[in-house]
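User: I'm new to structure prediction. If I give you an amino acid sequence, what do you actually give back? Let's try with this one:
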Amino acid sequence: MRDDGAACLAALASAERADCARIESSRTDGAEWLVVCHSAAGTLTVFRLSQGKGFGYDLAVKRSIRIIPILIALLVVAWQYFSSEKFVNPETGESHRGALSEAQEDRLGLQSYQQVLSEERVIPSGPQVDMVRQVAQRLAGATGDASKKFQWAVSVVDSQQVNAFCLPGGKIVVYTGILPVAQTPAGLATVMGHEMAHATSRHGSQRLLQSQLMQTAMTGAQFSMADLDYQSQRTLISLLGGAAQYGAILPFSRNHELEADHIGLVYMARAGYDPREAIEFWKRMAQASGGQQPPEFASTHPSNYNRIQQLQSYMPEALKIYEQSKGAQQSYQLKIPNVETKR
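Assistant: Good question. You get back a string of structure tokens that encode the predicted 3D arrangement of the chain. For your 343 residues, that looks like this:
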């Protein structure tokens, strides 16, 4: 190898990194030279060439993060966000964006509901079904404009699961396992109002948009690290993933849970159910869980203690609505048709 400085080093840098669009070189001390490779992708790669012991040269490469993939990802994130559907939550007055239109949400909700009906043991009639249906009808009427396009339906599933949910478009499923915890119609109204609030607030569409934005950003970050060694890539991606999970995704979900608590409390108060029963319900839920709950920062749901504290802060508003709604339950009642199931 020639020992004539920049020309030799430039040739070596070009051979080692064919994507160099521009090369700068300078001599440091002794037989060591530095070559800076400017790639078309915006990467700056530093080559250090030093004379080895007895023969040839040793090449050291300092790798760096590419900028252009990050910039492209940010542009795509901005396009995804601003092209998404914007809507206003009529209960809070706040503007939000979602990944799906209302029509798309309704179709997905109906598909999921039909799948549940085909896979689970649905109870067609009986006292449990009558109670669930009555509570659902009163709550559905209390949701107002938030559900004006919903086609409400409700089913009771014979299962020990302590669970209930409301799919987009107003498809409600209540598992019999939650009825002993609910105990009363007001307790049942607490959990059903909460789940209905998730649907009327379109939380699923909001979370889907957030997931898409996060995925785009992470993809850009991965491409920007293409020049790093494998271990460095794994470490940085792991750090970014953890930051996204604990700094954005989980707090976003917990905020949705608290918002559903608040709106659900309003729904049950409008429908004539005593909102103070909500606190008793969540105390029973805490007891039913046996204290087995992950730390709040690592959970999609707020802690039972924090949830009860927040409900207590919402209580003055809810009690005012409840006093105004006494005796007016029938005006809120909304007829929900029977759901035919094939087993």
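You can read the tokens as a compact description of the fold. Here is one thing that stands out. Residues 52-61 have pLDDT under 50 and may be disordered.
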